[in-house]
Write a structure and sequence with these properties.
The chain contains 7 helices and 10 strands. With 250 residues, it is α+β, with helices and mostly antiparallel strands. It folds into 4 domains: 56 residues, no CATH class; 36 residues, no CATH class; 42 residues, no CATH class; 76 residues, no CATH class. The strands form 5 sheets. The chain has a two-stranded antiparallel ribbon with strand order 1-2. β5 and β6 form a beta hairpin. The radius of gyration is 27 Å and the shape is flat. The relative contact order is 0.09. InterPro entries: HNH, HNH_nuc, Znf_C2H2_type. It comes from Natronoarchaeum philippinense. Keywords: Endonuclease, Hydrolase, Nuclease.
Length: 250
């Protein structure tokens, strides 16, 4: 078990604590230890070996250090300007860059035109890139709530990725097992750490081994075959987009 350093909440994995701290306390926990000074710090990609103070490629050691700029004369307006040295000489001042079309590559920050699409559930309009529209298969949605509602209404029966011939009667014991699983897991998602209060509803209960793989539903409804998940994580596991860690499996 791992404990949140801010509120003391215990979760089954450290990854769960990190997700909990980012979501609930709005601040990521340190995930790296500086090889220079030993201080803990956070890096979004968890790759850096040094903190900002110890980075051997930062500050004056960096080729783009402020004091190492070069001076050039703009070929368009003849004004002098400073620029960071590279394998290309400075040619145009910042004010003339836009007028140097054909001589400079396109600005990578230039915004692409966007297309207007409608949310597949509520019909609200939003702007998307053409590339997003080409790659999208299920349509666009305002948020996860709209997406969830759309899935509930459309990805059912034979359209569901786990369809195997019809509905299953879970039987009376399912309600008892589901309540017991939620109590055991403190009404908390065992993947991301969000609880009933964070979600605003009771979390889902997921079968680790699908019910259809058992000879009877009663065999599937056991405490060691169920785990509490929020709706988002439940959907991710069901669709194969995420996997549960061994620690989250009770």
């Amino acid at each position: 078990m791992s404990e949140c350093p801010s509120c003391g909440k215990t979760l089954s994995t450290m990854q769960g604590v990190r997700q909990h701290h980012t979501i609930v306390h709005d601040e990521p926990l340190p995930n790296r230890c500086c090889k220079g000074c030993g201080a803990d710090f956070y890096d979004s990609k968890a790759r850096r070996k040094f903190c900002d103070d110890c980075n051997p490629n930062a500050g004056e050691h960096n080729g783009n250090w402020e004091d190492e700029k070069s001076i050039a004369v703009c070929e368009t307006c003849s004004s002098t300007f400073s620029y960071y040295p590279s394998n290309k000489e400075g040619t145009y001042c910042p004010d003339c860059v836009e007028s140097a079309k054909g001589l400079l590559p396109d600005n990578p920050q230039k915004k692409e035109p966007r297309n207007t699409v409608e949310c597949g559930h509520c019909g609200e309009k939003k702007q998307v890139l053409p590339s997003e529209e080409e790659d999208n298969k299920r349509g666009f949605f305002c948020n996860m709530n709209c997406y969830g509602q759309w899935l509930s209404e459309n990805v059912v029966g034979s359209d569901h990725h786990q369809w195997k011939g019809g509905p299953i009667n879970y039987g009376q014991s399912w309600w008892r097992i589901r309540r017991a699983a939620r109590r055991r897991d403190d009404y908390e998602c065992q993947a991301c750490g969000r609880n009933k209060d964070d979600l605003g509803r009771n979390p889902d209960v997921h079968h680790l081994t699908p019910v259809r793989e058992f000879d009877s539903v009663e065999q599937a409804h056991t405490m060691d075959n169920v785990v509490t998940l929020c709706r988002s994580c439940h959907r991710g596991v069901e669709e194969g987009e995420m996997a549960l860690s061994d620690d989250s499996k009770k």
